[in-house]
Structure formats: C-alpha cells, structure tokens
Design brief:
The protein has about 90 residues and is mostly helical. It has three helices and no strands. The protein has helices at about 20-40, 40-65, 65-90. Helix 2 packs across helix 3 (about 65-90). The termini are far apart. This is DUF3618 domain-containing protein. Keywords: Membrane, Transmembrane, Transmembrane helix.
Length: about 90
C-alpha cells in the first residue's frame, strides 16, 4: 500500500510535462532566476557555511572534550599575546 504523492521540484529546476511554450519559457526563467539568487546570495551562503562549521566544531568538541579545551586555551593565549604585543608597541 503506497500513497502516490507528487515529487517536489527544486526551485532551480524546470518541471516536466509543460507543453505550452509560453509556460515553459516562464518556468525556465523562474528556474534561472532562482539559480542566480542561490548562487549570488553571498550573505546567506556565508551564514550557511558558518552554521555548518559551528555544527562540525560542536560535534568534534563532544567527541573529544580534552582537545577542545586545549584548542580554546591555545586561542586565548594567542589573543592575549597579540593584545600584549599591540599594547607594548603602542606604549613605546
């Protein structure tokens, strides 16, 4: 027993079965504009990349908390050293 549902078409694809040339051209234009938006929307792509990176880092931190703590301590030491160097250069 299976339920027949229409397969969802991605926004960047042209649905099959359009016979009217005008409707076909509209569907192709709509798909092309959606593909351009997906490709050119840099802030959204950057946000998605940051979300993926955060997810990956959290997974790695859960698998190995000791290495995560060491990485945080190392980054904190580097930031502290950089601030110390900048302040020392400024006060001289």
């Amino acid at each position: 027993m299976s339920i027949e549902r229409p397969v969802p078409v991605p926004r960047t694809a042209v649905p099959l079965g359009i016979t009217d040339p005008v409707e076909s051209a509209r569907a192709e234009l709509k798909a092309a504009l959606a593909a351009i938006e997906v490709k050119a929307n840099v802030p959204r792509r950057a946000s998605d990349a940051v979300d993926r990176t955060i997810h990956d880092v959290r997974e790695k931190a859960q698998r190995n908390p000791g290495a995560a703590a060491a990485a945080v301590a190392g980054v904190a030491a580097l930031v502290g050293f950089a601030v110390w160097g900048i302040v020392r250069a400024y006060t001289r």
